[in-house]
Amino acid sequence: MTSELTSAIERVARVPTLLVSADFDGTLAPIVENPMEAAPLPEAVAAIEGLAALPRTAVALISGRARADLAVLTGLSPVVHLVGSHGSEFGTGFVDELTEDRQKLLGDVERELTTLVGHEPGVRLEVKPASVAVHVRTAARDVAQRVAEAVRGGPATWPDVVVTNGKEVIELSVITTHKGTALDTLRAQLSASAVVFVGDDVTDENAFAHLDGSDVGVKVGPGDTRARYRVDTPHDAARLLALLLDTRRGFLQA
Ligand SMILES: [Mg+2]
């Protein structure tokens, strides 16, 4: 951790109301081949639960995963806010909020993707409440390339379909939300004085873009980013959260 990042963490820990937010996969949980075997690092869980238990401190995980999967995989206590599907899912029963038109569009997208790429080896379709994700992590590179082209030239071009490109995944959504708008909503709901956001993927860039002055954005791993700070691995991210917890606890007790 650089001394600039340490200073930023020590500074943001002292704001009146703090929102700590993070992505899940590749940020709190190391990337694994089978996504349903992803597990958060115990150090990250301890820091997150610790922060969530502090007064005037809220914690939210904002993930591309379906919220129900996120709940099972993280096993966090209910005081931690879980936001799924890149900011589309704030609570349960979400699918009822989709209009009939959008539910039909989602069904059409799913059918088209199944026909177009569902048979490709190593490709997995994940149907979520407002989107379908095409995962190519376990596909051969030439297959992944062919699938990406088919998706981008196919239902990705349909009206009202929103495309999100992640690491080894292309997601087609029928509503327009992203992690940045999710962060805005949480910030307003919680009246946060400042926000910390930690994330590793291209979809996290929308969140970094919605940070300002006193906020702290931390990118995990390599790649271009709009985040001001960077750490190398999920283990580093866990250490950063632990430092934030220690500093804020000390500040609140003083
Ligand atoms: Mg991630």
From TrEMBL:
A GO term for molecular function: metal ion binding
Top-level lineage group: Bacteria
InterPro entries: HAD-like_sf, HAD_sf, OTSB-like, Trehalose_PPase
Root EC class: hydrolase
UniProt entry tagged with the keyword Metal-binding: yes
The keyword Transferase is assigned to this record: no
Matching Pfam families: Trehalose_PPase (PF02358)
Catalysed reactions, semicolon-separated: alpha,alpha-trehalose 6-phosphate + H2O = alpha,alpha-trehalose + phosphate
Any single biological process term in GO: trehalose biosynthetic process
NCBIfam families given in the database record: T6PP
Name this polypeptide is given: Trehalose 6-phosphate phosphatase
Organism of provenance: Virgisporangium ochraceum
